[in-house]
């Protein structure tokens, strides 16, 4: 049903350029993860993708955008995020030789008016006092009172919200209950085993089967150390593993791992542990 809808949607957009439409390619660590996200969005639910850094949350959001053929407007949260970053801002513009104040809509207003998807990345990085501005956007009302224009914005049909959260990551704050209750939660754990090998084969430049098997094992070893608290979560990033595989297609694997994974770790002890795990395999 979703693919049929996607085909019809693409036909209606064939004469327009939407650079923000994501691409497919997400490989789920659990068979139900992608299907659950599709179902939730189809029912008009807000989806919260929860998992460690580098587990593929953004790739999943892009794949959902691709499946629904819906442009994806992104908000990248940080402690500096304010109302302007969410709903837009006013600026001076020159019209007919005169200076006028012009309102530039932000990603939330654009997504709501056009009935497209909104992606709020690292939602728990934002200051707690910033996000209540969009509570009405996230509940059954699907409305927003624009603080800069006074306009009451009603979301158009097709509007959907996807957010991503890294639990316990440095710089994050706990999501308040009122905000969290507006989402359905989908866990996005790290990939492993055959599914990870499939992703590395399809999305990296490395085509040596033996080396790919060793990279899959390296990932499993790193994840085991992460679970035991010996390594930071970024050591298990699938994104970093893909970088290492790409580099390993052209250079010695240990050098590639050092550049893509090991040297990104800030703690010297963690760097030594990751390097030791790599050396036992390569």
From TrEMBL:
Entries under Gene3D superfamilies matching the protein: P-loop containing nucleotide triphosphate hydrolases
Pinpoint the AAA+ ATPase domain residues.
43-193
What does the similarity note say? Belongs to the CbbQ/NirQ/NorQ/GpvN family.
UniProt protein name: MoxR family ATPase
- Source organism per entry reads Paenibacillus gyeongsangnamensis
């Amino acid at each position: 049903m979703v693919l049929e809808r996607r085909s019809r949607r693409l036909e209606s957009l064939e004469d327009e350029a939407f650079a923000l439409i994501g691409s497919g390619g997400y490989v789920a660590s659990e068979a139900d993860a992608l299907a659950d996200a599709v179902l939730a969005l189809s029912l008009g639910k807000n989806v919260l993708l929860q998992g460690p850094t580098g587990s593929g949350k953004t790739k999943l959001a892009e794949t959902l955008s691709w499946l629904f053929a819906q442009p994806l407007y992104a908000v990248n949260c940080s402690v500096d995020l304010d109302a302007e970053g969410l709903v837009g801002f006013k600026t001076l513009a020159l019209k007919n030789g005169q200076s006028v104040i012009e309102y530039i809509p932000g990603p939330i207003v654009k997504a709501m008016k056009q009935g497209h998807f909104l992606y709020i990345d690292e939602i728990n990085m934002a200051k707690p006092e910033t996000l209540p501005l969009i509570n009405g956007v996230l509940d059954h009302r699907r409305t927003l009172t624009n603080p800069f224009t006074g306009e009451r914005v009603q979301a158009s049909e097709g509007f959907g919200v996807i957010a991503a959260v890294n639990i316990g990551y440095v710089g994050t704050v706990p999501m308040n209950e009122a905000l969290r209750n507006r989402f359905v939660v989908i866990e996005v754990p790290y990939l492993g085993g055959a599914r990870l090998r499939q992703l590395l084969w399809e999305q990296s430049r490395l085509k040596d089967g033996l080396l790919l098997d060793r990279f899959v094992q390296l990932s499993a070893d790193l994840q085991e150390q992460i679970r035991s608290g010996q390594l930071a979560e970024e050591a298990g990033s699938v994104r970093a593993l893909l970088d290492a595989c790409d580099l390993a297609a052209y250079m010695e694997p240990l050098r590639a791992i050092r550049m893509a994974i090991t040297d990104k770790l800030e703690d010297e002890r963690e760097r030594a542990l990751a390097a030791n795990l790599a050396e036992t395999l390569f």
